[in-house]
Amino acid sequence: MRNKLFLFDIDGTLISPGNVARKLLDKIIVRNFGQSPNLTYDDVAGSTDPLIVEKALVKIGIADGEISNGAKTIFDQYQKELAPVYNNSDLPFVYDDCVHLLNRVKQAGLSYGLLSGNIKATAKIKLDKFNLWNVFPFGVFGDDAAMRSDLPWLAREKAWDVLEKSFRFEDIIIVGDTVQDAIAANKNQTKSIIVCRKHQRRNELENSNPTIVVDDLNEVDVNSFI
C-alpha cells in the first residue's frame, strides 16, 4: 500500500478564527492608509494572506508601485499585533470534527501536514492558542506561495525534506472548506475533502468538483482514501 499525505487547511477547516484577524487587518490598513477596505468573508475565504492584503490595497486605490511596500508594512504590524488580540478573544474555536479526522489519519499510520493561506507566523499564533501547532510535522503557507494552487506541489517537496517520503499527487488529499481548496486540488490532480461550514454555499462547493463534500468531517471514511 502506498502512503497517503493529508494536508489540512486551517481557517474554516481546523479552526474558526472568528473575525479577529480580519478586523485587525482592517484596523492596520486604516491606520496606515486612512481608509478601510471593508474586508468581507468573500474577500478572505480560501485566499492567501498576501493576496488578501493586495486585494485590500487595490480596493482602496493604492497605486500598483506602492502595493509591495504597503503590504510589507501591514504584515510587519499584523504579525506583531495578532497574538495578544487573538489570544484574548473568545471568538476563535476548534472544529472537533477536523481533530477527529486528523486522529483517524494518524491511527491509520498515514502522513499529514498543513496547507494554509495564512503566512507561517500567523498560522502558528492561531494554532498555538489550541496547542495544535506542534501536532503537525510540517506545513506550507501563504508566504511560500501567494497562489493557493502552487501550495500542493510545494507541500510534496516539503514532505520529502521533512518526512523523507515521496508522494504521487494522486496520493495527496487536501482537506479544506472552500471552492479554492477544491480548485487547488484539481489543478494538481490531488484528491480533496471539502467540509461545508456554510450550508448556503453547498451548491458552489459541489460545483467545484471536489472528491467529496461533507457537512461534517466525521462522515469521512479514511479507509476509502487508502
Structure report:
The structure is a single chain. The strands form two sheets. Strands 5-4-1-6-7-8 form a six-stranded parallel β-sheet. A two-stranded antiparallel sheet has the order 2-3. Helices cover 45% and strands 12% of the residues. It has helices at residues 20-33, 41-44, 49-59, 64-87, 96-107, 120-128, 151-163, 179-187, 202-207, and strands at residues 5-8, 15-16, 93-94, 111-115, 139-140, 172-176, 191-195, 212-214. It folds into two domains: 5-17 and 92-225, Rossmann fold (3-Layer(aba) Sandwich); 20-87. The model has no long low-confidence stretch (mean pLDDT 96). With 226 residues, the protein is α/β, with parallel strands linked by helices. β6 (172-176), α8 and β7 (191-195) form a beta-alpha-beta unit. The protein contains nine helices and eight strands.
Q: Strand fraction band?
A: 5-15%
Structural class based on helices, strands and sheet pairing: alpha/beta
Number of structurally distinct domains: 2
Instruction: Kindly report the average pLDDT value.
Output: 96
Q: Main sheet: which strands, in order across?
A: 5-4-1-6-7-8
How many helix segments? Answer: 9
For the biggest sheet, the summary is: 6 strands, parallel
Shape from CA axes?
Answer: globular
- Per CATH, which architecture of the largest domain? 3-Layer(aba) Sandwich
Distance between the termini: 8 Å
- State the order of secondary-structure elements, H for helix, E for strand: EEHHHHEHEHEHEHEHE
**How many distinct beta strands?**
8
- In quaternary terms, these chains amount to single chain
CATH superfamily of the largest domain: HAD superfamily/HAD-like
- How is the CATH topology of the largest domain named? Rossmann fold
Q: What value does the Rg take, in angstroms? A: 17 Å
Low-pLDDT sequence parts: none
Helix content: 40-55%
CATH class of the largest domain: Alpha Beta
